[in-house]
Write a structure and sequence with these properties.
Elements (H helix, E strand, L loop, with lengths): L16 H15 L4 H18 L23 H14 L11 H25 L22 H14 L6 H13 L9
Helix pairs in contact: 1-2, 1-3, 2-3, 3-4, 3-5, 5-6
Length: 190
């Protein structure tokens, strides 16, 4: 049910491309409801795949649910934020596929709500003292630790925006960090 970065042999479904595909399908469905017979089953399978991937800590790993000891089973704030945005896009009546009975839709909505709450708890718990989030993927070779708080923070802020939580204390700390991180030329050197 998940999507990989390629449709070629060897592509592995992951927690970055699957949310991207789910967000694209949600946007596509908004423009053409006639596609619902084709899009809803794919989205439902993708949502279920994403729900099954969530780690016990509430975050999402890149490829495999696990214990957080290997790079491919460790939760990341960037992946978790992307997953939350995708789940939010399909939550509720968006998956009201006539081929799925009412109880199954209700069960799926309950799973999505629980997964989103656990994901938000993971994000709040993984915020750094300075207000940033450090992503699992996409580092910055110019930083001493090769981390990329600008990217991670931006990904989480997008999720908090979509969920209507930009006024929350974690979002405020992150936005304050962005303000003080901006260079005189308008760019960011994080």
């Amino acid at each position: 049910g998940g999507w990989a970065w390629t449709d070629l042999s060897g592509g592995v479904p992951d927690a970055d491309d699957t949310p991207g595909a789910l967000l694209a399908l949600a946007a596509w469905l908004k423009t053409d409801q006639a596609l619902s017979d084709r899009l809803l089953p794919a989205a439902s399978a993708g949502v279920r795949w994403l729900l099954d991937l969530q780690n016990a800590d509430g975050g999402w790993p890149p490829f495999a649910r696990g214990w957080g000891t290997l790079p491919f089973d460790k939760s990341g704030c960037d992946l978790t934020a992307h997953a939350l945005r995708a789940l939010h896009a399909w939550r509720g009546t968006r998956l009201a596929n006539p081929s799925i009975d009412h109880l199954a839709r209700q069960e799926l909505d309950t799973r999505i709500a629980g997964a989103m709450e656990a994901g938000l708890r993971y994000l709040i718990g993984s915020q750094q003292r300075d207000g940033t989030w450090t992503p699992l993927w996409f580092g910055n070779q110019y930083r001493p630790q090769e981390d990329n708080p600008l990217y991670g923070t931006a990904k989480v802020l997008l999720a908090l925006r979509d969920l209507g939580r930009l006024d929350s204390p974690p979002a405020r700390r992150a936005l304050d960090w962005l303000v003080i991180s901006q260079r005189a030329d308008g760019g960011f050197a994080a």
